[in-house]
User: Fold TetR family transcriptional regulator from Nocardia fluminea.
Amino acid sequence: MVTTVNPRIRTPRAEVRERILAAALAEFARKGFVGTTIDAIADAAGFTKGAVYSNFGSKDDLFFALLDQQISRRIEAVTTLADAAATRPTVTAIGDLLMRGLLDNRDWQLLFTEYWLRALRDESVRERFVEHRRAVRAAIAEAVRRLDLETDIDPATTAVLVLALNSGLSIEEFTEPGVVPADLFGTVLQAVTAQR
Assistant:
């Protein structure tokens, strides 16, 4: 009798990373950054701890990968909006899109706030966080430049404004759901940027 051995099918690396990131976000949201272990993330993703470490060197690396993912998704959504529009999208439309992104990502906002507090309390964490925030602001500013919105505020300042609105509105909305009007992000951006 001939015995056949099923070849082991490897999960593509990109899929492994996505599953680990999804599991990390869920675990961080459920237990907090400090309370979450790499073992718990690995179990939730369906992989070994070694698989997590081969893709991400630490919990901090997981956080920054999640941060990159959040920023990339929002920039991509705004770019898609711009590409789909027959004319340049309005600041209000962009703000509305960003507000939907905020509302759809409560778990991320909780994790971000917790990590931000950690960065404020630990200088070594803060240094990396600050470096990364500079890169995030630069990416958003570049997206603003590409949109050519014709506002009176320069792209770098617009990036700071967008991040500040996102953080502030998330605090208010997730503390008391429904208190932030759905169009407030866009309304504030429109008023502050004085789009011509």
About this structure: The chain has two domains: 11-57, 58-193. Residues 21 and 66 are 7 Å apart (CA to CA). The two ends are 80 Å apart (CA to CA). The mean pLDDT is 88.
